[in-house]
Amino acid sequence: MTARLWSDVEVGEELPELRFPLTLKTLVMAAMGTRDLMPYHHDDQFVRSIGMRGAFVNTMFHQGLFGRFATDWAGPTARFRSASLRMTDQLVAGDVAVVSGTVVDRWTADDGDALVRLELRTSNDLGTTAISRTVLALPTVAGEHAGFRALGEPEPTVLSDAMPTEAREQIGVTSPRPGPYPVSEAQIGYFAEAVRDANPLYTDPGYADASPAGGIIAPPPSLIVWVMDRGSQVGIDLDRPDIHLPEQPPWPVPAHKRASLRLLPGMTDVVVQEVLLEFGVPLRPGDRVTSVNELVNCSGAKQTRVGPGHFLTARDTFVNQRDEAVGRSTMTLLQFRAQA
Protein backbone atom coordinates (compact mmCIF):
# COMPACT_ATOMS: atom_id res chain seq x y z
CA MET A 1 0.00 0.00 0.00
CA THR A 2 1.74 3.18 -1.24
CA ALA A 3 1.58 6.37 0.85
CA ARG A 4 0.63 9.52 -1.07
CA LEU A 5 2.05 12.94 -0.23
CA TRP A 6 -0.23 15.96 -0.50
CA SER A 7 2.22 17.69 -2.84
CA ASP A 8 1.98 14.81 -5.31
CA VAL A 9 -1.81 15.05 -5.72
CA GLU A 10 -3.43 17.05 -8.51
CA VAL A 11 -7.03 18.18 -8.85
CA GLY A 12 -8.66 16.16 -11.61
CA GLU A 13 -6.57 13.06 -10.87
CA GLU A 14 -8.51 9.82 -11.41
CA LEU A 15 -8.24 7.03 -8.87
CA PRO A 16 -7.64 3.48 -10.16
CA GLU A 17 -11.00 1.75 -10.71
CA LEU A 18 -12.02 -1.09 -8.38
CA ARG A 19 -14.38 -3.91 -9.41
CA PHE A 20 -16.03 -5.71 -6.49
CA PRO A 21 -18.36 -8.67 -7.29
CA LEU A 22 -21.25 -9.17 -4.85
CA THR A 23 -22.50 -12.64 -3.94
CA LEU A 24 -24.73 -14.13 -1.26
CA LYS A 25 -21.57 -14.54 0.81
CA THR A 26 -20.96 -10.79 0.44
CA LEU A 27 -24.34 -10.12 2.06
CA VAL A 28 -23.52 -12.53 4.89
CA MET A 29 -20.09 -10.98 5.47
CA ALA A 30 -21.61 -7.49 5.36
CA ALA A 31 -24.09 -8.52 8.07
CA MET A 32 -21.22 -9.99 10.14
CA GLY A 33 -19.05 -6.91 9.65
CA THR A 34 -21.73 -4.33 10.42
CA ARG A 35 -23.99 -6.28 12.84
CA ASP A 36 -26.96 -5.05 10.80
CA LEU A 37 -29.73 -7.67 10.71
CA MET A 38 -32.41 -5.46 9.16
CA PRO A 39 -34.32 -7.70 6.69
CA TYR A 40 -33.55 -5.41 3.77
CA HIS A 41 -29.96 -6.71 3.82
CA HIS A 42 -30.46 -10.48 4.04
CA ASP A 43 -34.11 -11.42 3.37
CA ASP A 44 -34.48 -11.56 -0.41
CA GLN A 45 -38.12 -12.68 -0.33
CA PHE A 46 -39.17 -9.82 1.94
CA VAL A 47 -37.33 -7.18 -0.09
CA ARG A 48 -38.87 -8.37 -3.35
CA SER A 49 -42.32 -8.25 -1.71
CA ILE A 50 -41.96 -4.47 -1.27
CA GLY A 51 -40.98 -3.92 -4.90
CA MET A 52 -37.17 -3.95 -4.85
CA ARG A 53 -34.75 -6.14 -6.85
CA GLY A 54 -33.57 -8.14 -3.88
CA ALA A 55 -31.68 -7.95 -0.59
CA PHE A 56 -29.07 -5.22 -0.81
CA VAL A 57 -25.88 -4.24 1.01
CA ASN A 58 -26.32 -1.61 3.68
CA THR A 59 -25.07 1.90 4.33
CA MET A 60 -22.11 0.75 6.44
CA PHE A 61 -20.94 -1.63 3.72
CA HIS A 62 -20.87 1.29 1.26
CA GLN A 63 -18.97 3.39 3.80
CA GLY A 64 -16.47 0.60 4.29
CA LEU A 65 -16.03 0.02 0.55
CA PHE A 66 -15.52 3.72 -0.15
CA GLY A 67 -13.12 3.92 2.81
CA ARG A 68 -11.10 1.00 1.48
CA PHE A 69 -11.03 2.58 -2.00
CA ALA A 70 -9.80 5.92 -0.60
CA THR A 71 -6.92 4.44 1.43
CA ASP A 72 -5.99 1.93 -1.27
CA TRP A 73 -5.11 5.10 -3.18
CA ALA A 74 -3.87 7.39 -0.38
CA GLY A 75 -2.16 4.79 1.82
CA PRO A 76 -2.26 4.17 5.60
CA THR A 77 -0.57 7.50 6.40
CA ALA A 78 -3.74 9.39 5.39
CA ARG A 79 -6.43 10.33 7.93
CA PHE A 80 -10.16 10.55 7.34
CA ARG A 81 -11.77 13.89 8.22
CA SER A 82 -15.26 13.34 6.82
CA ALA A 83 -17.16 11.13 4.41
CA SER A 84 -20.63 11.65 2.99
CA LEU A 85 -22.71 8.93 1.41
CA ARG A 86 -25.77 9.33 -0.81
CA MET A 87 -27.40 6.12 -1.97
CA THR A 88 -29.27 6.31 -5.26
CA ASP A 89 -29.97 2.62 -5.94
CA GLN A 90 -29.28 -0.80 -4.46
CA LEU A 91 -26.39 -3.21 -4.91
CA VAL A 92 -27.65 -6.80 -4.74
CA ALA A 93 -26.09 -10.25 -4.98
CA GLY A 94 -25.08 -10.87 -8.61
CA ASP A 95 -24.07 -7.25 -9.22
CA VAL A 96 -20.49 -6.16 -9.77
CA ALA A 97 -19.86 -2.92 -7.89
CA VAL A 98 -17.55 -0.66 -9.91
CA VAL A 99 -15.91 1.97 -7.69
CA SER A 100 -14.37 5.04 -9.29
CA GLY A 101 -13.21 8.42 -8.06
CA THR A 102 -11.68 11.80 -8.82
CA VAL A 103 -9.74 14.36 -6.80
CA VAL A 104 -12.01 17.43 -6.88
CA ASP A 105 -10.24 19.76 -4.43
CA ARG A 106 -6.92 20.23 -2.65
CA TRP A 107 -6.25 22.86 0.03
CA THR A 108 -4.52 23.70 3.30
CA ALA A 109 -6.78 24.36 6.29
CA ASP A 110 -6.22 27.06 8.91
CA ASP A 111 -5.03 24.42 11.40
CA GLY A 112 -2.34 23.26 8.96
CA ASP A 113 -4.17 20.19 7.66
CA ALA A 114 -3.18 19.32 4.08
CA LEU A 115 -6.50 18.16 2.68
CA VAL A 116 -7.93 16.60 -0.45
CA ARG A 117 -11.56 16.04 -1.36
CA LEU A 118 -12.45 12.97 -3.38
CA GLU A 119 -15.68 12.44 -5.27
CA LEU A 120 -16.30 8.70 -5.30
CA ARG A 121 -19.07 6.61 -6.81
CA THR A 122 -20.21 3.04 -7.15
CA SER A 123 -22.16 1.75 -10.10
CA ASN A 124 -23.54 -1.48 -11.49
CA ASP A 125 -24.97 -2.42 -14.89
CA LEU A 126 -28.03 -0.25 -14.18
CA GLY A 127 -26.14 2.93 -13.33
CA THR A 128 -24.83 4.82 -10.30
CA THR A 129 -25.76 3.30 -6.92
CA ALA A 130 -23.98 5.57 -4.42
CA ILE A 131 -21.89 8.75 -4.28
CA SER A 132 -19.44 9.87 -1.59
CA ARG A 133 -17.53 13.05 -0.92
CA THR A 134 -14.57 12.03 1.21
CA VAL A 135 -12.08 14.42 2.79
CA LEU A 136 -8.64 13.07 3.69
CA ALA A 137 -5.65 14.70 5.37
CA LEU A 138 -2.39 13.64 3.72
CA PRO A 139 1.17 13.91 5.02
CA THR A 140 3.41 16.60 3.54
CA VAL A 141 6.74 14.93 4.39
CA ALA A 142 7.81 11.47 3.22
CA GLY A 143 7.74 8.89 6.01
CA GLU A 144 5.34 10.86 8.18
CA HIS A 145 1.63 10.34 8.91
CA ALA A 146 -1.15 12.92 8.87
CA GLY A 147 -2.36 13.64 12.41
CA PHE A 148 -5.66 12.98 14.18
CA ARG A 149 -7.90 15.97 14.94
CA ALA A 150 -10.59 16.82 17.48
CA LEU A 151 -14.19 16.91 16.24
CA GLY A 152 -15.58 20.37 15.41
CA GLU A 153 -19.09 21.73 16.02
CA PRO A 154 -22.03 20.67 13.78
CA GLU A 155 -23.60 22.95 11.21
CA PRO A 156 -26.82 24.69 12.40
CA THR A 157 -30.13 23.31 11.07
CA VAL A 158 -33.04 25.27 9.55
CA LEU A 159 -36.29 23.54 10.55
CA SER A 160 -38.91 22.67 7.92
CA ASP A 161 -42.13 24.69 8.18
CA ALA A 162 -44.10 21.65 6.93
CA MET A 163 -42.86 19.31 9.67
CA PRO A 164 -45.67 17.17 11.15
CA THR A 165 -46.54 17.79 14.80
CA GLU A 166 -45.46 14.29 15.87
CA ALA A 167 -41.93 14.98 14.60
CA ARG A 168 -41.76 18.56 15.90
CA GLU A 169 -42.38 17.26 19.43
CA GLN A 170 -39.23 15.12 19.14
CA ILE A 171 -36.87 17.86 17.90
CA GLY A 172 -33.97 18.35 20.30
CA VAL A 173 -34.90 15.41 22.51
CA THR A 174 -31.67 13.47 23.07
CA SER A 175 -31.35 9.79 23.88
CA PRO A 176 -28.06 8.04 24.70
CA ARG A 177 -27.45 4.64 23.14
CA PRO A 178 -24.57 2.62 24.65
CA GLY A 179 -23.06 0.07 22.31
CA PRO A 180 -23.77 -3.48 23.54
CA TYR A 181 -20.18 -4.66 22.99
CA PRO A 182 -16.74 -3.04 23.24
CA VAL A 183 -14.67 -2.32 20.17
CA SER A 184 -12.71 -5.49 19.41
CA GLU A 185 -10.02 -6.64 17.00
CA ALA A 186 -12.39 -9.41 15.93
CA GLN A 187 -15.17 -7.01 14.87
CA ILE A 188 -12.64 -4.68 13.24
CA GLY A 189 -11.43 -7.70 11.27
CA TYR A 190 -14.97 -8.70 10.24
CA PHE A 191 -15.61 -5.16 8.97
CA ALA A 192 -12.33 -5.02 7.05
CA GLU A 193 -12.85 -8.50 5.59
CA ALA A 194 -16.33 -7.63 4.30
CA VAL A 195 -14.80 -5.08 1.90
CA ARG A 196 -11.27 -6.60 1.71
CA ASP A 197 -9.63 -3.56 3.27
CA ALA A 198 -5.89 -4.23 3.68
CA ASN A 199 -5.06 -1.03 5.58
CA PRO A 200 -2.45 -2.26 8.12
CA LEU A 201 -3.69 0.16 10.80
CA TYR A 202 -6.73 -2.13 11.10
CA THR A 203 -5.20 -5.58 10.74
CA ASP A 204 -1.42 -5.56 11.28
CA PRO A 205 -0.43 -5.10 14.97
CA GLY A 206 3.27 -4.77 14.15
CA TYR A 207 2.71 -1.93 11.68
CA ALA A 208 0.05 -0.25 13.81
CA ASP A 209 2.14 -0.40 17.02
CA ALA A 210 5.10 1.27 15.27
CA SER A 211 2.91 3.98 13.70
CA PRO A 212 1.84 7.26 15.37
CA ALA A 213 -1.54 5.57 16.00
CA GLY A 214 0.24 3.46 18.61
CA GLY A 215 -1.76 0.31 17.92
CA ILE A 216 -4.68 -1.14 16.01
CA ILE A 217 -7.51 1.31 15.36
CA ALA A 218 -11.01 0.80 14.00
CA PRO A 219 -11.66 1.95 10.41
CA PRO A 220 -13.20 5.41 10.78
CA PRO A 221 -16.02 4.50 8.33
CA SER A 222 -17.09 1.76 10.80
CA LEU A 223 -18.25 4.43 13.28
CA ILE A 224 -21.93 3.40 13.32
CA VAL A 225 -21.14 -0.30 13.82
CA TRP A 226 -20.12 0.18 17.45
CA VAL A 227 -23.60 1.18 18.63
CA MET A 228 -25.60 -1.28 16.54
CA ASP A 229 -28.08 -3.24 18.66
CA ARG A 230 -27.74 -6.98 19.20
CA GLY A 231 -28.80 -8.91 16.10
CA SER A 232 -31.80 -10.44 17.88
CA GLN A 233 -33.07 -6.90 18.60
CA VAL A 234 -32.74 -5.48 15.09
CA GLY A 235 -35.83 -5.18 12.90
CA ILE A 236 -38.36 -2.82 11.37
CA ASP A 237 -40.62 -3.31 14.41
CA LEU A 238 -38.36 -3.22 17.45
CA ASP A 239 -41.02 -4.95 19.55
CA ARG A 240 -41.26 -7.85 17.06
CA PRO A 241 -37.94 -7.71 15.20
CA ASP A 242 -38.16 -11.01 13.26
CA ILE A 243 -40.68 -10.53 10.45
CA HIS A 244 -41.07 -14.31 10.12
CA LEU A 245 -41.78 -14.79 13.84
CA PRO A 246 -44.22 -11.95 14.57
CA GLU A 247 -45.07 -13.31 18.04
CA GLN A 248 -41.44 -13.52 19.17
CA PRO A 249 -40.17 -10.53 21.18
CA PRO A 250 -36.58 -9.24 20.99
CA TRP A 251 -33.93 -10.86 23.15
CA PRO A 252 -32.83 -10.25 25.82
CA VAL A 253 -34.78 -6.99 26.08
CA PRO A 254 -36.22 -4.56 23.51
CA ALA A 255 -33.74 -2.36 21.71
CA HIS A 256 -33.56 1.31 22.66
CA LYS A 257 -36.03 3.26 20.51
CA ARG A 258 -34.29 6.25 19.02
CA ALA A 259 -36.40 9.30 18.24
CA SER A 260 -35.20 9.35 14.63
CA LEU A 261 -36.45 5.80 13.97
CA ARG A 262 -39.87 6.00 15.63
CA LEU A 263 -42.35 5.62 12.80
CA LEU A 264 -44.63 8.58 12.16
CA PRO A 265 -48.38 7.86 11.86
CA GLY A 266 -49.15 5.87 8.70
CA MET A 267 -45.52 5.02 7.95
CA THR A 268 -44.47 1.35 7.76
CA ASP A 269 -40.78 1.26 6.73
CA VAL A 270 -37.55 3.23 6.97
CA VAL A 271 -34.45 3.34 4.76
CA VAL A 272 -31.30 5.47 4.87
CA GLN A 273 -30.87 8.00 2.06
CA GLU A 274 -27.77 10.03 2.93
CA VAL A 275 -25.16 10.08 5.70
CA LEU A 276 -22.36 12.47 6.61
CA LEU A 277 -19.71 11.06 8.94
CA GLU A 278 -17.22 13.36 10.65
CA PHE A 279 -14.33 11.91 12.63
CA GLY A 280 -12.52 12.78 15.85
CA VAL A 281 -10.09 10.73 17.94
CA PRO A 282 -9.63 7.12 16.77
CA LEU A 283 -11.40 4.12 18.26
CA ARG A 284 -9.29 1.32 19.67
CA PRO A 285 -9.96 -2.23 20.87
CA GLY A 286 -11.49 -2.10 24.35
CA ASP A 287 -13.22 1.26 23.86
CA ARG A 288 -16.90 1.47 24.81
CA VAL A 289 -18.92 3.70 22.49
CA THR A 290 -22.10 5.60 23.29
CA SER A 291 -24.04 7.63 20.74
CA VAL A 292 -26.32 10.50 21.71
CA ASN A 293 -29.15 10.57 19.18
CA GLU A 294 -31.53 13.39 18.35
CA LEU A 295 -33.98 14.23 15.60
CA VAL A 296 -32.96 17.58 14.10
CA ASN A 297 -35.37 17.98 11.16
CA CYS A 298 -38.30 16.39 9.28
CA SER A 299 -39.89 17.25 5.94
CA GLY A 300 -43.55 17.52 5.13
CA ALA A 301 -45.27 14.69 3.26
CA LYS A 302 -43.50 13.65 0.03
CA GLN A 303 -44.39 11.20 -2.74
CA THR A 304 -41.48 8.84 -3.42
CA ARG A 305 -41.03 5.90 -5.76
CA VAL A 306 -41.53 3.46 -2.86
CA GLY A 307 -44.59 5.25 -1.46
CA PRO A 308 -45.65 8.41 0.40
CA GLY A 309 -43.31 9.41 3.19
CA HIS A 310 -41.21 11.92 5.12
CA PHE A 311 -37.47 12.66 5.06
CA LEU A 312 -36.01 12.92 8.57
CA THR A 313 -32.60 14.22 9.63
CA ALA A 314 -31.03 12.54 12.66
CA ARG A 315 -27.76 13.35 14.39
CA ASP A 316 -25.68 11.00 16.50
CA THR A 317 -22.66 12.19 18.45
CA PHE A 318 -20.34 9.32 19.38
CA VAL A 319 -18.17 9.37 22.51
CA ASN A 320 -15.85 6.82 24.10
CA GLN A 321 -15.65 5.84 27.77
CA ARG A 322 -13.40 8.86 28.43
CA ASP A 323 -16.14 11.14 27.03
CA GLU A 324 -13.94 12.01 24.04
CA ALA A 325 -15.82 12.73 20.80
CA VAL A 326 -14.89 10.02 18.31
CA GLY A 327 -17.28 11.07 15.57
CA ARG A 328 -20.62 12.39 14.43
CA SER A 329 -23.21 11.04 12.02
CA THR A 330 -25.81 13.24 10.34
CA MET A 331 -28.28 10.96 8.59
CA THR A 332 -31.22 11.53 6.24
CA LEU A 333 -33.80 8.75 6.51
CA LEU A 334 -36.93 8.10 4.48
CA GLN A 335 -39.90 6.88 6.48
CA PHE A 336 -42.56 5.66 4.03
CA ARG A 337 -45.76 3.68 3.66
CA ALA A 338 -44.93 0.67 1.51
CA GLN A 339 -47.07 0.15 -1.60
CA ALA A 340 -49.08 -3.09 -1.68
From TrEMBL:
Outline the extent of the FAS1-like dehydratase domain.
170-239
State the superkingdom: Bacteria
Q: What is this protein called?
A: FAS1-like dehydratase domain-containing protein
